[in-house]
Design goal:
The structure holds 2 protein chains of 2 kinds.
Chain A lengths: L2 H8 L3 H7 L4 H14 L7 H10 L4 E6 L5 H10 L5 H4 L3 E4 L8 H14 L4 E6 L2 E2 L8 E2 L2 E2 H10 L1 E7 H6 L1 H4 L7 E2 L10 E4 L6 H14 L12 H4 L10 H6 L9 H4 L18 H4 L35 H7 L7 H30 L1
Helix pairs in contact in A: 3-4, 4-11
Chain B lengths: L25 H20 L3 E4 L7 H11 L5 E5 L3 E6 L5 E7 L5 E8 L10 H15 L4
Antiparallel strand pairs in B: 1-5, 2-3, 3-4, 4-5
Helix pairs in contact in B: 1-2
Classes of the chains: A alpha/beta, B alpha+beta.
The structure holds iron/sulfur cluster.
Chain lengths: 365, 143
């Protein structure tokens, strides 16, 4: 029996951890009900979900931050308490996260190596940030090791890798043109481990909780979309679930942030909203403990959960009809709206052209 | 240990809307028929069911007409479980409206359960076994 086998069988189940902490069955059922709803499971599956989750072994989690801004971790930790999601995050064994650790330097690195060795082949590796490969990886080093080498080593012993945020998932802002550090997403370096991308800049914390719950209860990777994201959370566009959608379908668009349309809550498409090409759960799960999401606050979606979102042109230009066609995911019901959207994009480009012509005339006069 | 605290029962009944009151839109009516079908199943086979209403997009007016359609039964109480959980029996026995809120008061889950007693309230076999041991220990002066 290896050390890892020993460790695995000695890890308590999540049920045992919850019992030790005095978490009542009903409190746990409430958490599972919220998770089932989030994961679009039938409510009557809640008992089965709860049973499976209680029986799952408490997972060891190694959280490695690389080329990132710590926004993802901020988003995650700020929402964990006192929301019910902390029920799960109190039960996992977060064996390494150098930002949250009280220990630093050699002591923190030793703890990481120890935890990895003890749970080799079993831990969940959470990666936050892209990985700079330029100039031999010198743009990102820690404890004398490049991020590339650290990732390769940590990935070797991982059961699965959870990429938190758009940087780890798709390269994100460091990957944006001209990408001076040669940044890449995890999937460009690791090819032999299951990778789940939880994109977003930052990602929605509840989506991450749901993904971990799914992994623990089924022991497997959830159904993923073509970008490696859990389909249950990224299966629908922001536009499909947007409460302003009826204005889009009626062709009612705000033309500036302070016009009558904006005040009436009309569609923000012409102001650059990327809801039609962005797949995420913001419109349903929302932000800040379910308070709202950007479109509800009067600003269009900037598409932060999509690959290359930073290099898709200005945030205040309408997405083009070509982008719709590229995705090939327009439902029949949306077709009328798409036609309006395309017409709207054309109208906006005409306005822009007109503005630049007027500016040109003014300059030359 | 947080065992959840039962608050006093509040009893207030609302009759279901009178026949002929046409307060229902198509979506609400469809939900009503689904609940009726599940009630029949519960009655005939004992099989319970539930509908996640948080995931069904409803405008505020539709939601209100859905609430009115189901009315209010005799039971209405609140549990304190990391935020409030309210369990209401509707005017139709066997149809329960369950709403879970987080500590900030945001609704995190809401469903209609068609059951004799909501699952959440039922003590589980494992717990009952442990309870017997705990009670004996108390009677023997061990705790
Ligand atoms: S374009 Fe944006 S604001 Fe308009 S309906 Fe779609 S997601 Fe909503």
């Amino acid at each position: 029996m290896t050390q890892s086998d020993n460790n695995r069988s000695s890890q308590p189940t999540i049920g045992q951890v919850l019992d030790e902490r005095g978490v009542s069955r009903r409190r746990f059922m409430k958490f599972c009900t919220a998770m089932a709803s989030l994961m679009a499971m039938p409510p009557m599956m809640t008992s089965a979900l709860a049973q499976n989750l209680r029986q799952a072994r408490r997972p060891s989690v190694i959280y490695m931050p690389f080329q990132e801004c710590t926004g993802c971790l901020e988003s995650l930790t700020r929402s964990f308490s006192p929301s019910i999601e902390n029920l799960l995050f109190d039960t996992i064994s977060l064996d390494y996260n150098h930002t949250l650790f009280a220990a630093a330097g050699t002591a923190a690195e030793a703890a990481r190596h120890e935890a990895m060795e003890a749970n080799w082949g079993e831990y969940i590796l959470i990666v936050d940030g892209s990985i700079p490969q330029g100039a031999g990886g010198v743009y990102g080093t820690s404890a004398g090791e490049s991020f590339v080498d650290q990732l390769r080593h940590a990935a070797d012993g991982a059961a699965a890798i959870l990429c938190v945020g758009t940087c780890a998932s798709f390269g994100g802002i460091p990957y944006a043109n001209p990408n001076p550090t040669g940044a890449v997403p995890v999937s460009e370096i690791i090819h032999d481990r299951p990778i789940i991308n939880v994109s977003g800049c930052p990602p929605i914390p509840a989506v991450m909780t749901g993904t971990i719950v799914h992994y623990l209860t089924t022991g497997g990777v959830p159904d993923l979309d073509k970008y490696g994201r859990p389909s249950v959370f990224y299966g629908q566009s922001i536009h499909d679930r947007c409460y302003r959608r009826r204005f889009y379908d009626e062709g009612k668009f705000a033309k500036s942030f302070d016009d009558e349309g904006a005040r009436n809550g009309w569609c923000l498409y012409e102001l650059g909203c990327r809801g039609p090409t962005t797949y995420n759960a913001c419109a349903t799960v929302k932000w800040n403990e379910g308070t709202s999401f950007p479109i509800e606050s009067g600003h269009g979606c900037i598409g932060c959960s999509e690959p290359n979102f930073w290099d898709q042109g200005g945030f205040y230009e309408p997405v083009t009809s070509k982008l719709f066609e590229d995705r090939g995911q327009i439902g029949g019901a949306a077709a009328a709206g798409v036609a309006l959207g395309a017409a709207s994009a054309y109208a906006a480009s005409r306005r822009k052209k007109k503005r630049s012509e007027t500016a040109g005339e003014e300059e030359s006069s | 240990m947080n065992t959840g605290q039962l608050l006093p029962l509040r009893v207030k009944t609302e009759p279901p809307p009178a026949p002929g009151d046409d307060i229902l839109g198509g979506g609400v009516r469809a939900l009503g028929y689904e609940i009726a079908a599940r009630l029949e199943t519960l009655h005939e086979t004992g099989e319970s069911g539930a509908i996640d209403i948080k995931s069904i997009p409803m405008a505020a007016a539709e939601f209100e007409s859905f609430r009115q359609m189901l009315g209010q039964g005799e039971v209405d109480f609140t549990l304190e479980l990391d935020g409030q959980t309210r369990i209401r029996e509707t005017a139709f026995p066997g149809v329960w409206w369950i709403q879970h809120k987080d500590p900030e008061g945001q609704v995190v889950a809401e469903h209609i359960e068609i059951n004799h007693v909501p699952d959440l309230l039922r003590a589980q076999a494992e717990e009952i076994g442990q309870a017997a041991d705990a009670l004996r220990a108390r009677l023997n002066g061990e705790t």
